[in-house]
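> tool_call: predict_assembly(chains=two)
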Amino acid sequence: MLASLSFLSPLTLAAIGTLALSLLVGFMFLRWFAGPPAAVARRVGLFVLRSLAIGTLVLILLNPSDVTESPGPIDRPDVFYLLDASQSMSFGDKETRFEHARRLMSDANATVGDRPHAEVKLFRFGHRLSAVDGQKKSDGQELNRIDSNVSSNKTRATEKPLEPVDSDTQLVTALRQASSRFGRRPPAGIVLFSDGRARDESGVDQVAAQFAKLNVPVHVVPVGDTSKGGDVAVVAVVVPARVRRYTSVEVQVFLRSYGFEGRRCEVSLVEPATGEASAERQLAPAVPVTLHDGFQSVELSFRTEPKTRKLKIKVSDLPNEVSTTNNEFVTQVTIDRTKIRVLYIEGSSQPLQPVQRGAKYEVRGPYSDIQAALTEDEDIECVVLHAQQGRGRLQRVGENIQFSTGRSFPETVAELSAYDAIILSDIAATSFNDEQLGWMEQWIGQRGGGLMMVGGQKSFAAGKWGDTPIAEMLPIELRAENDWLPGTQVSVKADQAALGHPLWMLTSNDAQNRDIVSQFPAFFGANRWGAVKPNLTRVIANSNLAIAEPPVANNVVAQTKPKVSLVDQLKKNLLGPNAGGKKPTAPTQTAEPKPSAIATEPLPTDTPAIVSGQYGRGRTLVMAMPVTSPWANDFLTKWGDGDTKYFGKFWRNSIYWLTESSSIGRRRLVVTADKKFYRPGETIQLTAAAFDEAATPTGSYKITSMIEPQTSLTDLESNYSPIRWPEGKPRESGESGPFMAWGEEFDLPRVDTAAGKPAFQLELPIADALAVGSASQSLRVELTAMEEFTQVDSTSLDIQILHDPFEQQNPFPNHELLTSIAKHSGGKVIKDASQLADVLRDVPLKPGAPVVKKTPLWPNWSLWSWLLSLLTVEWIWRRMVGLA
Amino acid sequence: MWACCWNHRVWFATKNVLLVATVLLIAMPASSDDPPKAEKKEVKPVDSPLRKARVQFLTDAVKHFHVAVGKMSVEAKLTPEPALVWDNPVSGTKIGILAVFSRNGRPDVMAQFSFTSPQNVVNEFHNLCGDTLVMSRGTQPIWTPPETSTKWQTLDTPEKPAATPQLRLIQMRRLASTFTVEDDFGWEKTERHELRLLTTPVHRYGQPDEEVTDGAVFVYALATDPEAVLMLECAKGESGLYWRYGLGPMSIYALTAKRNGDVVWKIPERKEFGQTKSVQYVLPYQLGSGEKDPE
């Protein structure tokens, strides 16, 4: 940078001379007319002062300036970096292809340093080309900027992340789009960082040749190891987004393999480690798979637990794989904490027992143990109805085991449908009227409720259930005669084939579980069924019966001796002093049914004792043994040590299994799809069922729906979903394209079922290919039941569309394609960072005109102070000597 | 929902008698081996005319109430149609409606009127407004809540508000799904229920040229009975549009709202009935002149 002092007067020399001459002539005329100055004014000092003032003014007029001259900016041509950001660039072991490309950029940057070089403009491509950062930076900073962007993956908010996430590679399209970004002057070259695996390979040479004509060479940086054997990847997983606790969940895993035809590997399902200290936990046994080139699916299942949130699906690594990073897939399931409501109806004749608990008094009933076992789980609500002495009106047991006369068996099918399961224990069919039995059938068969009946003197055939709709629903045949066998000891043994049944999942340790199940306690008394029904049933346990004395009721369950005086006092208060204080006695089995012919038959061995089944949408479970004291004392108190009583877990398992199909009768709108997942080109059949307040299917609502993406709107490639607008269906949104816009509303027309029940159904055709070319696309169908302008209920359904993704079809790099591009465009094949640095340096650099900066010196306060001081001193002097 | 509480009050009054009855039953011997056939209780079918009459009764009943907000007593108008028709088979409520009073779209007061039985119709009002308000029936002021339990907070999300209401609805659904609400439901014995989000907002408001560009009210329900509401708004701020939310109770029971697992709002149980200074106003509905109990 140069600096110098120059006089940049706005007046020319002639003007200055003329001005000086004019002043001189004027002064002479003044002297000629006015004569010489007065003697008093002829002072040297005044003359000096005035001369200095005039000299300063002349200096200002001459405009002294500081002139600096800088060299002009070097005109540097652009070089475009085109970085492949498709998913195939994420392949690699120690270093992915994408990381390799980034490292080359950084190293080249370091090699170039501060020396003059081309200006780099970075673009990413996959689906399409987009600039990573278009902001101008000062000279010499752009390589650092590119390096910084590449390493921090930062882009502008509106752009895609600088990561290999695109599910397609449109290389030729990207090159064409790059040419539209040239501006007034084409770049000195293009550097293409890619593995060469592109969907649009054809015509690439012609495009490259066009770049040669423009004198824009396309240099290529091939990344990816070409010496690998093949690849296997988990490309998609279908699993319900919300699942209940302790339920069996199916996981559909989709694999894509290439180059490993006939090789065997394993697919496993684990819960990922949550921290450094924890380890992965296997959730299901690994499934062996024989690979074949292309797409294949594997089905796994696991049982949910309260804390399971994330799932990792892994396919075992194979030797010499292109990449092992795609051998895992992490997904998430959310635990549905919707309360499970159980209606437990107990008809046991066993007496109520007042029990003192600290300062409080409770009345314990035969239902207390099971109720406590179920409600130990905060997700289960257990409403108990008790028919005291096994007969009479069912009464609801309230807090502290007191009875509410206000509420009994649900008064409507809607109230019944608000439960998820019903347990019928030692209760006779005659406790229910025909309408109530019909409600049970409707609720379980159509809404997916669970039905459990356990043994007792008023259960099964002994309870006259044979002529009711419930008999049809049970998984076993009922005998015609009284089937209750009180004088038997029942040894129960889990069926070996059913050891994996959820009922037997008492601990997470398999060996310990088998041990616990083998100690399943004995019972007294059982109902003897006919045969197990053939369809959709499963024997879970068998039993052997032996003759034994019927047990006598005692206070086994109630450990605390009741204060009978309180009971007496209450009776006295109600009935007067003569009511007496007779202690309530626990009756023995005086109410036993009369012996029937069955009691005289020889006792069977290895007969089914616990059987599961299905009725309509619901599940059923029967136990031949009674589950209350005294018949099940061992079951209630002796199965497990100390505080670890397994009967509670057994009951909760039963309820979770029974309610797995429950479609939640508390909803007014339920929607289903005909498949768990779909392929492009298939049709989704969407069926909705609406219910009124009486839980009766209704067709009087209007069901509106819309398709929504599962991903954030910022990640959307298009405003349109991959669902085609159904042909012939009127459209009110104003859209006219073949596909539904996201959030576009449509109605589900009413299409009654063959049985005449109202339903709503619509077929939604899926596009032949996913627009984004991704492996899968998750959609959500949102449905709303409307009654004119008022909402009645709304719900949603997840839909997953699977696709065979291009990026996974052939994982090998295609360096030949890249070499061909370089060859036809006049570019180079760059193998390392120094070659890349050469490309940046070897560009024509043209220095620009120097930059001259002129700074006037007269706008300076010291100069003006000097001038003012001179004039002030001169004026004061003149006044002192008497001049005007 | 409060209808069940009223039932519980009756139940409370008789609990001593019930306990004695229980003890008596213990001592009573069985009179027969064969239990008698259960009586068939007549249950009126919920046919369409009856249902419509109940909904109409409840819709008309809300119109007797008027809400004035702020020092200027600006009337919060009742939306012409109920926002939701609901029922709760858990509590035994046969049918109910949710109504909205508002000045400029955002709900100031939300009302639930419910029918459990002909003599058991309950009105329930909740204050969602930060300003003072007076609710009157006819000309008689009956409720002047001193405060609201709704607090507005900025929603921390990378999701920028979309340009159109159609796309913003998609965003608001996604944002609402990040909230969960737990309800300790029950009079004496509470059961903690994780409430169900009705995925379609029951009320939508906002204007492009106003501070609140878009707003939606989502319901968290037990069955379809609203127990809490989430108001999500796209509002204009210094740096452009942003999301904010407010949660409000629709229940007297304790509610806890979480977002992505973290507690963001909590309100204790409030068993206050008919109190003029309470944050809610709950009472059995008093028939107006000429009104008859619904069937």
